[in-house]
Design a protein that fits this description.
By secondary structure, the chain is an alpha/beta fold. The chain has helices at about 20-25, 30-40, 55-70, 70-80, 115-125, 140-145, 170-175, 225-235, 250-260, 300-310, 315-325, and strands at about 15-20, 45-50, 50-55, 110, 130-135, 155, 160, 165, 180-195, 215-220, 250, 265-270, 280-295, 335. The longest helix is centred in the first third of the chain and has 13 residues, at about 55-70.
């Protein structure tokens, strides 16, 4: 299923439209990866009947965004909104398929990778609040972006080894003096991706020190990488001695895919990342907590009020339960710093 992206209404439909297969060939990636990029909002798309189409201009913008940093989605949105060459696609698509045109204002930016944030984007879209964009920056850099006013909210799953707790110690350190509210969204399992059937019998963190074992790592600043680095130190494992430690993947699914294709023996990530990767199994190692952090000065803004109300309702828990794979025992817990 392809989700309409907030700036689709400005997509240049007068130019050539490409199928998912065309995009995959051009970018030299798998077709399912194209659909994942569309679902995650990284690659704008439109529907023509039951078929997904992507414009060449949006592909070029996606490639430019990849060179300019984690918040380039905002620049892409502004470029699409302000460019005089972009025309409405109303002549090409039935009006019922077009997302509502939002006000000419800066977008709401939800920072984080977990798929549960798609629920927030859908909720804001249904209420006519937005536009809402996703930034897939890691937790550490997401909190810094929140502190610097670059994002509206940040998802966080940062484990602190000294207190054996999630997020709160990092929030105190990374957003000093900035009053923030923190909602606990859900728990999820972190662990290893291994090849189907786990032929190397990998069980825990110490297996990273086994001779001949190779890994694919996650990028600096993401919660998974910070968890790994803190686990290695007390075990006395030298990261520099791990084959593949310096190789980085920027998403859970991509990491699991590399392992499934035999590109590494171990990858690190959350359980959901391996759900749709046929050649990968998941080894659970640690329950983590995923939190929603926002500036208290923004809490009366319509979009934040809508999200806060949604999190506090039973409907949010029900939606998470339908998605499956989450621990909901702390969902909705709230703290301020």
């Amino acid at each position: 299923m392809a989700f309409p992206f907030p700036w689709d209404y400005n997509s240049p439909m007068g130019s050539s439209l490409l199928t998912a297969e065309d995009v995959a060939r051009q970018l030299r990636i798998k077709k399912y990866t194209v659909y994942e990029l569309i679902k995650r909002g990284e690659l704008p798309s439109s529907r023509v009947g039951k078929q997904v189409r992507v414009s060449q201009e949006d592909i070029d913008r996606y490639l430019r965004a990849g060179k300019t940093g984690p918040f380039s989605a905002v620049a892409a949105f502004r470029e699409a909104r302000e460019s005089p060459s972009h025309e409405s696609p109303a002549r090409e698509l039935p009006s019922r398929e077009l997302p509502p045109r939002g006000p000419a204002e800066d977008p709401i930016i939800l920072c984080g990778q977990d798929v549960c944030l798609d629920l927030f984007v859908s909720r804001l879209s249904a209420l006519g609040l937005g536009p809402a964009l996703r930034s897939y920056t890691g937790s550490y850099n997401g909190l810094i972006a929140l502190y610097n006013g670059k994002v509206t909210m940040a998802g966080s799953h940062l484990w602190d080894s000294e207190t054996d707790s999630y997020n709160y110690p990092f929030i105190r350190r990374l957003v000093p003096g900035l009053p923030v509210g923190v909602f606990r969204l859900a728990g999820r399992m972190q662990g290893f991706y291994v090849q189907k059937g786990n032929p190397l019998k990998i069980r825990d963190w110490q297996d990273l020190a086994r001779p001949g074992i190779s890994m694919i790592n996650r990028e600096r600043g993401c919660g998974t990488r910070i968890l790994l680095d803190q686990k290695l130190k007390p075990l006395g494992i030298d990261a520099g001695g791990i084959q593949g430690y310096t190789r980085e993947s920027t998403s859970h699914m991509a990491c699991a895919g590399i392992v499934a294709r035999g590109g590494a023996d171990i990858g690190c990530g959350c359980e959901r990342g391996a759900e749709h990767i046929a050649g990968a199994d998941f080894i659970p190692l640690q329950l983590e907590w995923y939190d929603f952090v926002f500036r208290l000065e923004d809490r009366d803004k319509p979009a934040l009020k809508a999200l806060i109300s949604y999190i506090a309702e039973d409907e949010f828990k029900q939606d998470l339960a339908l998605m499956g794979g989450y621990d909901l025992s702390q969902t909705g817990n709230y703290a301020e710093f």
